[in-house]
Design a protein that fits this description.
The protein is mainly α. It has two helices and no strands.
Length: 70
């Protein structure tokens, strides 16, 4: 994973291309999000597009959280 200034990260920042994530770092990020949000993501709902950008991952997380609140 590349070092990047937090202020430079936007919703359009690409996880793989801009931040240098790989499949292992994506899994670590998801586990961290689960711990922070006290929520477990359903891996069967994950699509490759959900990991395209910071914004797409945030949108996925928001959708998953919304679905559990209903």
């Amino acid at each position: 994973m590349r070092d990047c200034e937090r202020d430079a990260i936007t919703e359009r920042t690409r996880l793989f291309d801009d931040l240098g994530f790989d499949s292992t770092s994506i899994l670590e990020l998801l586990m961290t999000l689960e711990d922070e949000l006290d929520f477990e993501f359903d891996p069967e709902t994950l699509e490759p597009d959900d990991f395209e950008t910071v914004g797409s991952l945030a949108a996925y997380a928001a959708r998953q959280l919304d679905e559990t609140e209903q």
